[in-house]
Amino acid sequence: MADLKAMMMGWSDRNPLYAWRSSNGLSRNAVAALVGSSLNSVINWERGGSIPTDEKIEAIARAMNKNSGVLRREWDEWLQEVYERTE
Description:
Blueprint: H1 2-13, H2 16-23, H3 28-35, H4 39-47, H5 54-64, H6 68-86
Helix pairs in contact: 3-4
Protein backbone atom coordinates (compact mmCIF):
# COMPACT_ATOMS: atom_id res chain seq x y z
CA MET A 1 0.00 0.00 0.00
CA ALA A 2 2.85 2.41 0.78
CA ASP A 3 4.27 1.82 -2.72
CA LEU A 4 0.93 2.71 -4.30
CA LYS A 5 0.72 5.90 -2.22
CA ALA A 6 4.26 6.88 -3.23
CA MET A 7 3.44 6.18 -6.88
CA MET A 8 0.30 8.32 -6.72
CA MET A 9 2.23 11.15 -5.10
CA GLY A 10 4.72 10.99 -7.97
CA TRP A 11 1.89 11.27 -10.47
CA SER A 12 0.35 14.19 -8.61
CA ASP A 13 3.68 15.99 -8.58
CA ARG A 14 3.70 15.97 -12.39
CA ASN A 15 0.13 17.22 -12.71
CA PRO A 16 0.31 20.60 -14.52
CA LEU A 17 -1.92 22.34 -11.97
CA TYR A 18 -0.03 20.95 -8.98
CA ALA A 19 3.35 21.81 -10.50
CA TRP A 20 2.28 25.41 -11.18
CA ARG A 21 0.55 25.82 -7.81
CA SER A 22 3.48 24.49 -5.80
CA SER A 23 6.09 26.45 -7.74
CA ASN A 24 4.14 29.64 -7.03
CA GLY A 25 3.50 28.89 -3.36
CA LEU A 26 -0.27 28.82 -3.77
CA SER A 27 -2.63 26.82 -1.61
CA ARG A 28 -5.37 24.69 -3.09
CA ASN A 29 -7.87 27.11 -1.56
CA ALA A 30 -6.21 30.02 -3.37
CA VAL A 31 -6.37 28.16 -6.69
CA ALA A 32 -10.02 27.27 -6.09
CA ALA A 33 -10.79 30.96 -5.54
CA LEU A 34 -8.77 32.02 -8.61
CA VAL A 35 -10.63 29.67 -10.94
CA GLY A 36 -14.07 29.83 -9.30
CA SER A 37 -14.16 26.23 -8.15
CA SER A 38 -14.33 24.25 -4.95
CA LEU A 39 -11.41 22.99 -2.91
CA ASN A 40 -12.58 19.41 -3.53
CA SER A 41 -12.49 19.99 -7.28
CA VAL A 42 -8.89 21.21 -7.14
CA ILE A 43 -7.89 18.21 -5.02
CA ASN A 44 -9.59 15.81 -7.45
CA TRP A 45 -8.01 17.47 -10.49
CA GLU A 46 -4.54 17.21 -8.97
CA ARG A 47 -5.01 13.56 -8.04
CA GLY A 48 -6.56 12.59 -11.36
CA GLY A 49 -9.89 11.75 -9.76
CA SER A 50 -11.68 14.06 -12.17
CA ILE A 51 -10.88 16.19 -15.18
CA PRO A 52 -11.61 19.93 -15.34
CA THR A 53 -14.28 20.98 -17.81
CA ASP A 54 -13.23 23.06 -20.79
CA GLU A 55 -14.53 26.12 -18.93
CA LYS A 56 -12.34 25.34 -15.91
CA ILE A 57 -9.32 24.59 -18.12
CA GLU A 58 -9.80 28.09 -19.57
CA ALA A 59 -9.94 29.59 -16.05
CA ILE A 60 -6.90 27.63 -14.90
CA ALA A 61 -4.97 28.62 -18.04
CA ARG A 62 -5.81 32.31 -17.45
CA ALA A 63 -4.59 32.05 -13.85
CA MET A 64 -1.40 30.36 -15.08
CA ASN A 65 -0.99 32.90 -17.90
CA LYS A 66 -0.84 29.97 -20.30
CA ASN A 67 -2.59 29.06 -23.54
CA SER A 68 -5.53 26.78 -22.74
CA GLY A 69 -4.69 24.46 -25.65
CA VAL A 70 -1.18 23.98 -24.29
CA LEU A 71 -2.55 23.31 -20.81
CA ARG A 72 -5.08 20.79 -22.15
CA ARG A 73 -2.29 18.97 -24.03
CA GLU A 74 -0.10 18.88 -20.90
CA TRP A 75 -3.05 17.60 -18.87
CA ASP A 76 -3.85 14.91 -21.44
CA GLU A 77 -0.20 13.80 -21.50
CA TRP A 78 -0.18 13.58 -17.71
CA LEU A 79 -3.40 11.54 -17.70
CA GLN A 80 -2.00 9.23 -20.36
CA GLU A 81 1.09 8.64 -18.23
CA VAL A 82 -1.08 7.84 -15.21
CA TYR A 83 -3.26 5.50 -17.28
CA GLU A 84 -0.29 3.66 -18.78
CA ARG A 85 1.24 3.04 -15.36
CA THR A 86 -1.98 1.59 -13.99
CA GLU A 87 -2.55 -0.89 -16.82
